[in-house]
Write a structure and sequence with these properties.
6-stranded parallel beta sheet; about 50% helix; binds 6-O-phosphono-alpha-D-glucopyranose; 3-stranded antiparallel beta sheet; single chain; alpha/beta; globular
Length: about 425
Amino acid sequence: MSKALKIAVIGGGSSYTPELVEGILKRKDELPVSELWLVDIEEGKQKLDIIEALTKRMVKKSGLDIRVFTTLNRREAIHNADFVITQFRVGGLKAREKDELIPLKYDVIGQETTGPGGFAKAMRTIPVILDICSEIEELAPEAWLVNFTNPAGIITEAVKTHSNVKVFGLCNVPLGTKMDIAKLLKVDSKRIRVDFVGLNHMNFITNVYLDGYSILDEIIEKYSAPEYHEQVEAISDIVWDIDFIKSLGMLTSPYHRYYYITKTMLEEEKESVRTNGSRAMQVQRLEKSLFELYKDEDLNVKPKELEGRGGAYYSDAAISLISAIHNDKNEIHTINVLNNGTITNVPSDAIIEANCIVGRNGAEPIHIGAADTKIAGLINYVKSYEKLTIKAAVSGSYYDALMAINANPLVNEYSDAKAILDELLIAHKPYLDYVKK
Ligand code: G6P
């Protein structure tokens, strides 16, 4: 094993951090982490302190020699880091609440990564991530950036297009899909391989292999059975119509519900707001109880209750990726990378979510070819919206922003697009004041 590693986590006060710490400790034999830096902002100080104490207890229990630092000074954490993990949320869960509720007033899906909610989140995040990237270029030019911040595909493309930072975008859904299939078949997930085509939160499963043999047809038959629990906690429990899946001939991502059963999802969201609050409201309640647990001085492991959040397998995805780079493993990971001809009918300069061979020199996507006509339209529709969003965040032009939100497939009426944009700009003024006519 080679040199000791410095890892910096931006958004270190997140309730997800114990998951990450567990992932690092689990891989102690392959990942020689010597310094773990947790960074947050002033508003997150209280949470950061609680996370710091828990992290130190977890490290102490492991007996490992990992030094844990917390700081509000991002530059100090990034300086000479080997890996920077971004998992921050600009404006916190209160901003997410607005992203979810404002579109709903116009009968448009309100969600943190899709539709106008995802657009607003991207507009708040892109200026911040690009600042972080300038700091990485200056203070740790060799570092790898592993980005979890949503909307992960858009954020990764903004970084790739507007900085020189080596970046991987990461999401837990592809790994979760593989684990769900393994559970359904009651086999070890190592025996499963899943082929994807598409984008983050817009990824179709075109094949599933068990020990190298395709079992897609068998999985399709089981797909809408109640025992198949596609990772839906954070999204919806609605089961797909099996005839839809058969006509598609592929499996879907949980997020496809927003596009194919939009009216049903809209009604479900409204009902949920009436009864249980929007997802951001539910998550705030969950977070409150999680942090109460984290405060317990006897707690020195990741508590099971964290599984109530949507980020299952988050640390496995992130830390196994870091290990694949560090140990030059050349193994398959599903990540957000530059298309560069992998999907031939999606722009080459787009970020896609694909299986890649990952090693010391980065990620080499496994060639896919053309996305089927059944799905190519939707993928490209979403990609155009994503590109227009990045353009708007970089130009700060109101007109670019208006065009981007209009280009979102979930927004069908120009007057709604404009009204939602105007409301979002007012609601998020502290973060979106840079958008001007
Ligand atoms: C899924 C997605 C993540 C998202 C999460 C939301 O796992 O892959 O991108 O952040 O759900 O979970 P939450 O508990 O915050 O609603």
